[in-house]
Amino acid sequence: MEDLEKVKQFSRAISDIKNEIRKDVVGQEEIVDSVITAIIAGGNVLLEGVPGVGKTRLVRSFSKTLSLPFSRIQFTPDLMPSDVTGTNVIEKDAEGKMNTVFRRGPIFANLILADEINRTTPKTQSAMLEVMQEHKVTVGDTTYAMEEPFFVLATENPIEQDGTYPLPEAQMDRFMFKLIMKFPSVEELAAIVNMTQITMAETANAVVDGATILEMRELAKHVPIIDEVLNYAMNLVANTHPELESSPEAAKKYIKYGASPRAAQNFITCAKVRALMNGNYNVSYEDIDALAYPILRHRLKINYNAVNDKLTVEDVIGLILKQTKKK
Q1: pLDDT higher at 87 or 140
Q2: Which end of the chain is less congested by CB atoms within 10 angstroms, N or C?
Q3: CB atoms within 10 A of CB 301
Q4: pTM attached to this predicted model
Q5: What is the pLDDT of residues 208-266, one digit of tens each?
Q6: What angle is formed at CA 110 by the lines to CA 72 and CA 197, rounded to 5 degrees?
Q7: What is the mean pLDDT of the chain?
């Protein structure tokens, strides 16, 4: 009974968060659900979308709803790692003595919008991705831990590719999800215009705080998953590897290289959160299937055969899902 009550509280908190986000964000239900899942699961998100679809507004609205400090970093080719993480500076104290003081960079917040991360150099990208992975910053001999929960939403612009530095596959793997923010429909566009005519500021109210998010994360860790569903998720990841004998025909024909073990970890962690979000205290096949596209789309590399057959990464993931058996 205690677990059932906790599941109900979890679902109510999710419902409250979504209701507040809807005050600032029109449509994009799948994006909102996925960002909530990633924040609770403790992962980071790579968001692809054209300019002006509300990426910054989305993160700011989450900041207000979750009562968490927000920081936006605009990545440019001349941005240095110290511009992100912070640096040591020499200052005079009240007695006139010179002391070394650490000036924190914009990375020291709970919710970070890393805008156009592919516009900065690999050196700065690496510094950013190290903080995302380790949740700490090392400057000189001192290490500074990030305050939890810590979440990064990095954006990429799919249109302008001049002067960009695409993230290497190994670094893309650090992101729990890759989400595609679609252009709004005509009706949604009208609603956005009407909303922003009233005010450009976010109007969402705080409904939970950081401590509550961490409690929700802890609850999700204990959601049970039966062996059949666990094995299905593991087989789904294994089936993206063309070099394995057991891989389906689609993988051997269309995939150059498959997903890493980190994808398997993400499937289970996120499926437990998704189950609770839907009011369930067990992971289902449906939870795994729903997570396949955001978890795998940035981890698979398709080959020339796929391009020749006019197949996208999304198409190949769909084929892998069809050819992976449920027991």
Answers
A1: 87
A2: N
A3: 14
A4: 0.88
A5: 888 888 888 998 898 999 999 999 999 999 999 999 888 888 889 999 888 999 999 99
A6: 50
A7: 85
- Domain 20-79+108-214 part of CATH 2.40.50.140: no
First to last CA, the chain: 30
Q: Classify residue 110 by its DSSP letter.
A: S
Quote the tokens at residue 299: 């981890």
Highest mean pLDDT pick, 40-44, 89-93, 191-195: 40-44
Which residues of the chain does CATH 3.40.50.300 include? 20-79+108-214
3-state secondary structure of 156: strand
pLDDT digits (tens, 9 = 90+) for 76-85: 888 888 888 8
What integer pLDDT is reported at residue 61 of this predicted model? 85
HSE-CB at 101 with a 13 A cutoff on CA atoms is 8
Q: Contact at 8 Å (CB) between 111 and 151?
A: yes
Cβ neighbours around 308 below 10 Å, total: 9
Classify domain 223-323 by CATH number: 1.10.8.80
Look up residue 179 and give its DSSP letter: E
Specify the DSSP element, H or E, that contains 91. strand 86-92
SS3 category, 90: strand
Portions of the chain given CATH number 1.10.8.80: 223-323
Helices within the chain (DSSP H only): 2-21, 29-41, 55-65, 81-85, 122-134, 169-172, 186-198, 210-221, 227-238, 249-254, 261-277, 285-296, 304-308, 313-323
DSSP string, 261-307: HHHHHHHHHHHHHHHHHTT-SS--HHHHHHHHHHHHTTT-EE-HHHH
